[in-house]
Q: What sequence folds into this?
């Protein structure tokens, strides 16, 4: 079955960096766009960044443009989120997501990112 396993979260000071990884299995990874979402306490889950199936197209939430970079490796079946210049408002659980059309939508279990001094 589809599995998405996130890693790389943690505690970081404001201005710091983290790199999240999502290992995908159970489907043909290179056929699908991938996304990162996040959910802060008391807030709705929001889209952070998406990347097309080949990696040639990306889009970002306005709040992270210029600070975050999404990328993928279709050989390793992984998608990444490089997060720089982190702010306290970036604190959230970050989720990996794939929408495979009629085959359904899948989420990872999430990884906690906390930005605090």
A:
């Amino acid at each position: 079955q589809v599995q998405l396993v996130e890693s790389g979260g943690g505690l970081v000071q404001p201005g710091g960096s983290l790199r999240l990884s999502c290992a995908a299995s159970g489907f043909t990874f290179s056929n699908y766009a991938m996304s990162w979402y996040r959910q802060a306490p008391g807030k709705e889950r929001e889209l952070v960044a998406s990347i097309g199936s080949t990696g040639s197209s990306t889009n970002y939430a306005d709040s992270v443009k210029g600070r975050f970079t999404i990328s993928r490796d279709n050989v390793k079946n992984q998608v990444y989120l490089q997060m720089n210049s982190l702010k306290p408002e970036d604190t959230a659980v970050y989720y990996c997501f794939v929408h495979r059309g009629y085959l359904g939508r899948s989420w990872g279990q999430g990884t906690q990112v906390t930005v605090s001094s």
The chain has a mean pLDDT of 97.
